[in-house]
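Structure (tokenized):
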């Protein structure tokens, strides 16, 4: 299926050049614009991957800001530019402070800045933890669909790591037509596992929810396995756990030991991005000295350039591309602009005459 990106609305096509108004978009507005639109967002993410695949984007490496006094924390900058009909540039600036969770504060917080294609002026600042979770979940649901096309469609899903991202991924799977007979749940934190199980019950799922006290039993009993932990290094290394050839969405990127990837078909979102920052694919490259273990990108699969054999596990490791944040952020902005609900900050840009 070929999907098209929605056409851009203002302020991109202003002629003659003018300074665009500056809008601030709250998390509540973002959620209102995205909620219940899972199929549309997955289509948007698919179209954006295709655009990135043909090179109509700029997506430099993410920049990781780390702190000697807070080694588990980081803030990542993801600059990006999309061409096509969207024509927008921007930056996601996203913090990950895992210790927040114990205090009841979400791990990740973020803003997304959108920049005008013609003047370079920032024209919006959006709350972006919801945008980030949404594009991550949409990309996972898209991958689950494409990577299971040549094998029986999974009916048993298992989640290893059950925080916010796991919840969004389940919402996107359910919102794009997946239903499961069994849903496995495993987390090192009993509170997280219980909270996620509670969410599943409220979501109206008809599947039987089972909390596993080991990753092994969960993986062995799931045809679709989602990793959404905060593990910094591999904690799953036994290849025999994958003997039934599941589809694996390795969203947290660092859970699987090299031997698991070497026994599987490996699909990434972007090769250069994914082979960095000690992700599991990066560890395999360091171990083997080559990239032969990679089958290709999800775009390669969607374009038919890469086939996914049913006789092996398939692992999708998405680094997470800034172009997806931009596409989803611009979608939110356009929705609010067309309904007249943008909150504009008057006089945000003030020194607008060169010589006063
Ligand atoms: N690839 C991408 O595009 C992308 C985008 C967004 C988030 N992420 C990643 O998704 C992951 C989850 O994010 P979140 O916001 O849901 O985090 P979160 O802190 O809300 O939840 C993570 C959960 O994982 C559990 N956990 C940690 N180690 C575990 C282990 N070894 N086994 C089982 N459970 C374990 C924790 O107890 C916690 O409940 C993070 O690693 C984040 O970086 C990836």
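Design, position by position:
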């Amino acid at each position: 299926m070929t999907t098209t990106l929605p056409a851009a609305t203002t302020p991109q096509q202003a002629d003659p050049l003018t300074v665009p108004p500056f809008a601030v978009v709250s998390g509540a507005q973002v959620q209102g614009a995205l909620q219940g639109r899972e199929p549309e967002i997955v289509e948007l993410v698919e179209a954006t991957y295709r655009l990135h695949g043909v090179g109509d984007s700029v997506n430099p490496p993410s920049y990781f800001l780390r702190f000697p006094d807070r080694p588990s924390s980081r803030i990542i900058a993801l600059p990006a530019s999309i061409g096509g009909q969207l024509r927008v540039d921007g930056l996601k600036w996203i913090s990950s402070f895992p210790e927040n969770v114990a205090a009841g504060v979400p791990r990740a917080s973020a803003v997304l800045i959108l920049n005008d294609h013609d003047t370079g002026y920032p024209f919006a600042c959006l709350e972006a933890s919801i945008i980030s979770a949404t594009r991550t979940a949409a990309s996972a649901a898209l991958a689950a669909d494409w990577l299971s096309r040549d094998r029986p469609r999974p009916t048993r899903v298992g989640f290893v790591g059950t925080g916010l991202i796991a919840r969004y991924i389940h919402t996107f799977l359910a919102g794009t037509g997946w239903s499961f007979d069994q849903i496995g749940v495993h987390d090192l934190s009993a509170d997280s596992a219980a909270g996620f199980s509670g969410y599943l019950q409220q979501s109206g799922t008809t599947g039987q929810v089972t909390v596993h006290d080991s990753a092994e039993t969960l993986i062995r009993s799931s045809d679709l396995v989602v990793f959404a932990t905060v593990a910094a290094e591999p904690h799953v290394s036994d290849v025999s756990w994958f003997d039934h050839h599941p589809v694996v969405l390795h969203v947290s990127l660092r859970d699987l030991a090299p031997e698991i990837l070497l026994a599987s078909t490996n699909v990434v979102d972007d090769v250069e991005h994914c082979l960095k920052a000690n992700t599991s694919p990066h560890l395999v490259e360091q171990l083997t000295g080559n990239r032969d273990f990679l089958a290709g990108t999800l775009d390669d699969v969607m374009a038919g350039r890469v086939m996914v054999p049913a006789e092996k596990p398939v692992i999708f490791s998405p680094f997470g591309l800034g172009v997806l944040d931009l596409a989803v952020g611009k979608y939110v902005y356009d929705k609010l602009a067309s309904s007249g609900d943008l909150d504009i900050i008057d006089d945000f840009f003030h020194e607008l005459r060169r010589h006063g």
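Reviewer-requested clarification: The first helix runs from residue 27 to 34. The two ends are 54 Å apart (CA to CA).
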